[in-house]
């Protein structure tokens, strides 16, 4: 259970899209996937606006794995229990939109990808899924595929794009994902990040913004003993 602005949700899962902006695919020198790339983040990772992002000591003290990256994304929240939703009915099952920061242990992820292991660990450390600062109802955003995204690190713009560049649009994602899994009220779907991802260090301030929704502001802090 997490309170996002004035709304409390109780998600059963966080489903994320990988490689859903072509410029992000290009910066990682990956092949363009033929269908959506899905992965999950565990619920322990969820925090919201103003809470600290914990840089785990297990990463900070390990030169092979000591890179933690930011990723600004548009997320949407499921309104009701649904399965096998047609594209044309997708918006009927969306509660609203929010900003998501898909924090990632990048070196760990890359090592897992190369060795053909799941990316599970790198995505699901405590505090690695930030959502907020509020949930904007679908009725307040005419077109979720025309929203500017931006991420600033210590006041410097690092990511800047628009959701019009999403390769797989929201109605299709609802249909595609609900064909595999029953979606429950409060479930979070993060639609992927554009290019410009990069590392953070303890003491950094991250500001992740999506137009018409707001800005997530979080400080990175080193895990205490």
Mean pLDDT: 96
Please name the fourth-level CATH homologous superfamily.
Fumarylacetoacetase-like, C-terminal domain
Distance between the termini: 27 Å
Note the main sheet.
Answer: 7 strands, mixed
**Structural class given helices, strands, pairing?**
alpha+beta
Percent of residues in helices: 10-25%
**Treating each run of at least 4 consecutive H or I residues as one helix, how many helices?**
5
> How many domain modules?
1
| CATH class group | Alpha Beta
Give the overall shape, derived from the CA principal axes: globular
Across the major sheet, the strand order is 4-3-14-8-9-11-5
Low-confidence stretches are none
List the helices and strands and how they pair.
Layout lengths: L1 E3 L2 E3 L4 E5 L3 H6 L9 E5 L4 E2 L5 E3 L1 H4 L7 E3 L1 E7 L15 E9 L1 E2 H9 L5 H4 L5 E9 L10 E6 L2 E7 L7 H11 L7 E3 L7 E3 L4 E6 L3 E9 L3
Description:
This protein is of the alpha+beta class and 225 residues long. It has one domain: Alpha-Beta Complex (Fumarylacetoacetate hydrolase, domain 2), CATH 3.90.850. The protein has 5 helices and 17 strands. The protein has a 7-stranded mixed beta sheet, with no helix packed on it. A 5-stranded mixed beta sheet has the order 6-17-16-12-13. The chain has a 3-stranded antiparallel beta sheet with strand order 10-7-15. Strand 16 and strand 17 form a beta hairpin. The chain starts with a strand and ends with a strand. The relative contact order is 0.28. The model has no long low-confidence stretch (mean pLDDT 96).
């Amino acid at each position: 259970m997490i309170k996002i602005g004035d709304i409390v949700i109780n998600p059963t899962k966080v489903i994320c899209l990988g490689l859903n902006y072509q410029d992000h695919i290009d910066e990682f020198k990956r092949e363009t996937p033929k269908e959506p790339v899905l992965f999950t983040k565990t619920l322990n990772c969820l925090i919201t606006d103003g809470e600290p992002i914990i840089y785990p000591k297990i990463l900070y003290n390990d030169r092979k794995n000591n890179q933690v990256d930011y990723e600004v994304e548009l997320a949407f929240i499921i309104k009701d229990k649904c399965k096998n939703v047609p594209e044309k009915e997708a918006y009927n099952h969306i509660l609203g939109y929010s900003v998501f920061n898909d924090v990632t242990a990048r070196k760990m992820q890359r090592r897992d990808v190369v060795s053909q292991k799941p990316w599970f660990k790198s995505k699901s450390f405590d505090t690695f899924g930030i959502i907020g600062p509020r949930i904007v109802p679908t009725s307040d955003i005419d077109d979720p595929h025309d929203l500017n995204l931006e991420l600033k690190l210590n006041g410097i713009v690092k990511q800047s794009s628009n959701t019009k560049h999403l390769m797989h649009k929201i109605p299709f994602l609802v249909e595609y994902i609900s064909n595999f899994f029953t979606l429950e009220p409060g479930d979070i779907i993060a639609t992927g990040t554009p290019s410009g991802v990069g590392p953070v260090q303890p003491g950094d301030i991250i500001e992740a913004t999506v137009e018409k929704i707001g800005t997530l502001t979080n400080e990175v802090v080193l895990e205490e003993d």
